[in-house]
Amino acid sequence: MIGEHFDTRTRINMELALDRICRNRPDGESHDFRRAIAENIIRCALTGRTRLGQLVDAGERAVVQMRTERKSA
């Protein structure tokens, strides 16, 4: 799916963004955590925002959203 929608540079930026977000987090190796971050990064890229900084920001927003959801649960 991803290969069909994005060029090589964008895919690399997406992977780098995911790695940066997950790298030093206690739950960074969790499949569910990585999936939630990746989904937000993909949504960002689908809107045309494909620079690394933009994708990292999207991933960070997903982290904040997950924290908010945990606190309200």
Keywords:
73 residues, mainly alpha
Protein described:
- The chain is mainly α and 73 residues long.
- The protein has one domain (2-72).
- The protein has four helices and no strands.
- The protein has helices at residues 2-5, 8-22, 31-46, 52-72.
- It is globular and about 35 Å long.
- The termini are far apart.
- The model has no long low-confidence stretch (mean pLDDT 93).
Summed over residues and divided by their number, the pLDDT gives a mean of 93
Q: Count of DSSP helices?
A: 4
Low-confidence stretches: none
Supply the number of structural domains: 1
Order of helices and strands: HHHH
Relative strand content: under 5%
Radius of gyration: 12 Å
Overall shape: it is globular
Helical fraction? over 70%
Major beta sheet summary: none
Query: What is the count of β-strands?
Result: 0
Measured between the Cα atoms of the first and last residue, the distance is: 32 Å
Structural class: mainly alpha
